[in-house]
Every structure is written in C-alpha cells, then in structure tokens.
Amino acid sequence: MAKGNIGVTSNNIFPVIKKFLYSDHEIFLRELISNAVDATQKLKTLASVGEVKGELGDTKVRVIIDKNKKTLTVQDHGIGMTAEEVDKYINQIAFSGAEEFIGKYKDKAEAIIGHFGLGFYSSFMVSDKVEIFSLSYKDDAKAVHWSCSGDPEYTMEDTIKADRGTDVVLHINSEFEQYLEDATIEGLLGKYCKFLPVEIVFGKKKEWKDGKQVETDEDNVINDIQPAWTRKPADLTEEDYKNFYHKLYPTQFDEPLFHIHLNVDYPFHLTGILYFPRIKRNLDVHRNKIQLYCNQVFVTDEVENIVPEYLTLLHGVIDSPDIPLNVSRSYLQSDNNVKKISSHITKKVADKLAELYKNDKDDFCKKWDDIKLFIQFGMLSDEKFYERAVGFALLKNLQGEYFTLDEYKDKVKDSQTDKDGNLVLLYAQDADSSYAYIERAKQKGYDVLLMDGELDVHAMSQAEQKNEKLRFVRVDSDTIENIIRKEDTLKDNYTNEQKEGMRKAMEACLPESDKLRYYVNCEAAAADALPVFLTQNEFMRRMKEMSQHQQGMSFYGNMPDQFNIVINTSHPLVQELMSKMTSEEVEEVVEKPAENTDGKTDEKVQETVKKTVYTLSGEDERLHQLLDIALLASGQLKGEALAKFVNRSVSLLG
Ligand code: ADP
C-alpha cells in the first residue's frame, strides 16, 4: 500500500472547505456526476476514433445509496484511471487547485458561496471519508483503490475491479445524512442533472400495483440526454418546443407565446431556447427563471446580473461552455464573454420579434398585450433594444386597433395637430371612468389610445423625448378644446370680475381634504359639455405615477392629488347663475410702486381703486349641486358631502 500527502501545504483545508461552503454543499453531487459524465464521453470519443476496441457495454452513470453503510456512490463506466493518473489528477492537480482557490477567497466567504465548481474535492464537504475504485480502459491496466479521510493523508493500493470505470464512494458525515435519503437525491438530480448527455440512473422505475408502488426491473433514468436545445431546429416541431418548456418548468401550466432557438458558433459557443411567457402585470414575479447550463450541466438560474434585467422576464435555457462554471457571480458580470453573450441575446430577441411582426402582423397584435411589458421594459432600459424595437412596438386604441408609433402619427396628424404644430396623442387609462371625456374627443373626430399598462407612462415620456413636437395627453386632463388648441378657441363675454365672483362662490362650496387639492377656474368650454367638470394636469399626474416605480421621485409621490374644477361659461346653466349674481362697487386700497424717474427706488404708495365685486347668493344651492355632480362623476364625492348632496337633490326637486 502506498501512502502519501496530497499536494497541499496546509493541514486545515478540509475544515475550511466545509465551513465556507456550508450553504451550497449540495453541489458535490453535480461535480461528481459531471466527472463521471466526462469520463464516459471521453470513452465514447476514444471509441469513435478506434482507440478503444470492442463493445462499450453499459455506459450509464449510477447513483447508489447504501443506507446501512451510510455511503453514496457515483459509478461510471468511462475511461477510468490508472494509479499514476489518480496520483496526478486527484492527489496533485485537484487538490492544488483547491488550495489555490481557498487561498484566494479565504476572506470573502460571500463571494464564493454561490456559483463555482470545486471539482472532486467538494465531496469532502459532506463526507468523513472518500474512496475511489477505478479501472482504466487501457490494456493491462490494474485496478486502483484510493482512500482519504479528509486530511492531507491518503492511501493508494491495487485492488480487484471487474469492469472498466470509476466508483467514487462517499462515507457521508452524520451531519449530512439527508444525502442518504432518496427524496433529497432525487431533488438534486432533478435540479442539476436533468439534461446531462449521458444517462444517469437512480434506482429502479416504480409502478402502481394493487394500490402500492413497487419497483420494476427497469433502470430509473432521470435525465433527457438530448434536450431540445441541443437538437437542430429543423428536427423539432412546435409540439417538441412546448413539451420541452413543460419539462423545464413542471409547475407551469400556461403555454409560452413563442420561442427563440439560439445557436451561435462564433465568437463564442452558445445554444439555447428562450420562451416568451405571458407576462402578467407585476414586474417582480420571476417564478420561472432562465436556466444557465454549461455543456448540459445546470449552473444557475440566477441570471439577473448576467443578462439585462428585462431579459430575465423570459423563460428558457442558455447553454455555453464559454460561461465559466467555476467562478463567483461578481466575476461573471465583468467577464467579456458574458457581456458578449448578453448583447447577442438582446439582438436575437429583437430580430425574432421583428420577424414575427413582419411575417404575421395579426398574430403579433394578438400577442401584443402579453409581451408589451417586456418590450417596453427593454426599450426603457436598453437604448440598442429601443432602436430595434421601435419598428414593432405597438400602440392600441380604444377600438382595439394596433399601430406602430409612426403609423399612428400618420393616422391622426391631420386632425390632432394643434395650432402650434404639436401633434397631440390622446389616451385614456380607464375607458369607463373617462367615458364622458372620451365621447367629447370622439365627437371632434379624434382618436383615443388605451394606456393602461404598468410602464405606459414611462413609455410615453420616452416617445416624447425621442419625437419632437409629440405630446401624449390624457383625455380628461383638460377640456378637449384646451388639449388640442385650434385657431378658433372659444371665448365668453364675461368680465374678469364676474368670473372672479363665480370662482369665489365655488370655492366656498369645496370639500376639505388633505389628499386632494382643487383649483377653480371659469372657462368657455363647449356648450354641450357639462356645466362643471374636473380635469387633472397631465404633467403632475404623470410625475406622481412615475414616482411609484422610481426612486428619488418621492417628492411627487407625496404631493396631494391636484384637480382643476372647470366652470363652463358656455353652458346655459352657468350662464343663468352668472346672471343671478349681484354686484356692488367697492373701494379697495392697493399698494403700488411709486412712480419715479430713475426706476430704481422701490418706494411704494397707497392708492384707492374702485372695483366691482360680484357675489352669488348663498341661498342659491345650484352651484353647489353642479360641483357635487362633477365630483360624483369623478368618484370623489364621499361621506358627509355625499349625504348632503343626496338631501339637497331631494329638496331641489321639491
Ligand atoms: P475537473 O473535473 O474540474 O478537472 P476534478 O477535481 O473534479 O476537476 O477532477 C480532476 C481530474 O480527475 C479530472 O480532470 C479527471 O481527469 C480526473 N477524474 C475525476 N473523476 C474522474 C472519473 N470519474 N473518471 C475518470 N477521471 C476522473
């Protein structure tokens, strides 16, 4: 028997591994199975070039639990190792790699707890002792038995082994006995090994017999060795893509909308399939994530920092041998290959969308509502994606028709350009609550868009920045005549004093609220518009809405909601009330800057001016009634004010 010290200088490497990797110790299984798969693939390659002769026999990798002996074995029938190879690959290379790694990351536990492979020695995280039994494929090879109990000392001796390949036997530490449970191992195999290219067997298939589950003779193969992304698109049907989607996400019942098959050879290797799911309202829900693989080995599904955030809304797999497996996430972000991969995916996704739009507009429009959030998110966060997407990003009007921005501008430019040359695009966020305003716009021959999406407000602001003289205005933000001003604006013949009197009378009727603020003004709107109605300033409202998504905008978010109360002086009822106002002449003392020759001194003089003051008798409750109707129409009449309105209505009828 040979004894030796594995190639490390420090004695305490194993406690360090165990301590550092506590949260991620389960990856040992992925590492051992990857090694077994590699050894099997290498054997197949050698056989294909004639270096291994004869039948290969069973090449499955097996994971075997022995509860009595408390061992977990990963068994392969790959190329195996000779004693010299064990010495070289296990005693020297593997462990020196480990030491270097630990030396580098000793002080940054968080940086390494994450995503990397520790290779063979990660098995010591969960074991008291690890043994290797191996027989090389080489002619006249002798089987070798290696054993190590988690200190730098190992033993190595000849042994007897019938078939080619390697058994790695872990004597599981009592703290980690969960790895002797079938359910735990099944879970881990499902997570890491579902798509490995060599069959992985765990126990026997079970079937129901007489109301009980019994084992059959058939091996329980847990993986799909040729997952859809590794096959040629031409060989796959729509059905295959959908089936694969459900295999990836067994708990997802919705069908994906469409998919993109990625296949890149240059300047890096990458394959994969991305799916567009129906993206529901809430941006934060990432229940199913894109899974990252390296040669069919699952690496991570935390791709947030690897691909742009909006791409994380997609589902599917990305497989690239160029994505480093053995590194931490912070390293991934700055890796050049990873950056290239991300920009490539962005381009592919945009190209695919453009193609879908071009080939079947109707179908694209049908899917638009479900992918809109994704596309807007992409356009807002990635300038390149914006440029690509502007040709297929759509606007939807209240009739349910879809247009690109350019198409829509063409459609409305003749009717909705104001006297200053601004093109005004009207929109509603809720067709029901803005009903009256929408009707007035339609009467004018205008079109109204529906902008009820979570990112619409941001998307509109972006479009305004990119398009000169383009404005989006919510249809109830002002009178339609004011929103799109034409040369022939309406006027009334009332004096400022009369309007002031009406304004004051209205202010006396306003409800008090901390959360709402009202501003009153008199305006000549259309004669068939309501006598009194509410409007809401576009800019302020939008800032408030945007502040919900954006940090640093809480200033707007904390402001009370502001509304304008418009008294429509074109309406006969208002005109009637105007005529009921009484006037009196008053003298008022005002301060005026003193007239002087040099214009510099700021002396003031007092002057008495005559003024006509108009008042509406408090007895006349009709103005209050008109206000309450306007508030009611906007859903803002509540509590005591509502009760008073009801009573007043009854008495006015009587
Ligand atoms: P890595 O797999 O990253 O190279 P490991 O520490 O896991 O590092 O393994 C070191 C080396 O030991 C492998 O490169 C391989 O040559 C050899 N090896 C490990 N496991 C096996 C196995 N099951 N069959 C044959 N060779 C193996």
Q: Which topology of the largest domain does CATH recognise?
A: Heat Shock Protein 90
Largest sheet: 9 strands, mixed
Separate helix tally? 20
| Number of discrete domains | 4
How does CATH name the architecture of the largest domain? Answer: 2-Layer Sandwich
Q: In what order do the strands lie side by side in the largest sheet?
A: 1-6-5-4-7-3-2-8-9
How many distinct beta strands?
24
Compute the CA-based radius of gyration: 38 Å
Helicity level, as a percent range?
25-40%
Structural category is alpha+beta
Q: Could you tell me the strand content as a percent range? A: 15-25%
CATH homology superfamily of the largest domain: Histidine kinase-like ATPase, C-terminal domain
Query: What global shape is seen?
Result: elongated
The unreliable regions are: 108-117
Which CATH top level class of the largest domain fits? Alpha Beta
Bound ions, cofactors and other small molecules, one mention each: adenosine-5'-diphosphate
Distance between the termini: 113 Å
Quote the average pLDDT. Answer: 85
Q: Secondary structure elements and their pairing?
A:
Elements: E1 2-5, H1 13-20, H2 27-48, E2 61-66, E3 71-76, H3 83-105, H4 109-112, E4 127-135, E5 143-148, E6 153-159, E7 165-172, H5 182-192, E8 200-209, E9 212-221, H6 238-248, E10 258-264, E11 270-276, E12 291-294, E13 297-300, E14 315-319, H7 329-334, H8 336-359, H9 361-381, H10 383-389, E15 394-396, E16 402-404, H11 405-412, E17 423-428, H12 435-443, E18 448-450, H13 456-466, E19 470-474, H14 480-483, H15 496-507, E20 516-523, E21 532-535, H16 538-547, H17 554-557, E22 561-568, H18 572-579, E23 582-593, E24 604-615, H19 622-633, H20 639-653
Parallel strand pairs: 2-8, 12-14, 17-18, 17-19, 20-22
Antiparallel strand pairs: 1-6, 2-3, 3-7, 4-5, 4-7, 5-6, 8-9, 10-11, 11-14, 12-13, 15-16, 21-22, 23-24
Helix pairs in contact: 8-9, 9-10, 19-20
The structure holds adenosine-5'-diphosphate.
